[in-house]
Amino acid sequence: MSGHRRTCDLRGRAQRRGGVVLNAITGGLQQAAVGYSQTEAQFAQTRQQFSTQLSSAASSAASGSAATPTSAPPNVGNTNYTAVTEDFS
Predict the structure, then answer these.
(1) Which pLDDT does position 17 carry in this prediction?
(2) What confidence tier does 67 reach under pLDDT thresholds 50, 70, 90?
(3) Phi–psi pair at 10, nearest 5 degrees
(4) Poorest-confidence range of 6-10, 28-32, 60-64?
(5) Which single residue of 11, 26, 70, 71 has CA 20 to 30 Å from 44?
(6) 3-state DSSP percent of the chain in helix, strand and coil, to 5
């Protein structure tokens, strides 16, 4: 089989609709590239939102609005409110 005929078989000819292998491959690659691009854009947006919320939480904690607890919360030993049932002493 000549090189030209193989190339025509891979790319497809108007007479032979079944030999469109390269068209199918490039179409699949294009769909994958679009999906990758959309995923990358969404990841960048999510990362930006996370960074914004993280920095705002850090600034509010630094200003004292979110104080560090100094004692145990109420009902810490009540198993209706917590799954921790072991006492470590």
Answers:
(1) 58
(2) low
(3) -70, -45
(4) 6-10
(5) 26
(6) 55, 0, 45
pLDDT score for 88:
66
Enumerate residues 6+ apart whose C-beta is below 8 A from 16: 9
Euclidean distance between CA atoms 27 and 53, whole angstroms: 39
Q: How far apart are CA 22 and CA 29, in angstroms?
A: 10
What's the maximum distance between 2 C-alpha atoms anywhere in the chain?
A: 84
Tokens 């009902």 correspond to 75
Q: Mean pLDDT throughout 53-67?
A: 71
Token pair recorded at residue 47: 């990362």
**Coil vs helix vs strand at 72:** coil
Question: DSSP character for 81?
Answer: T
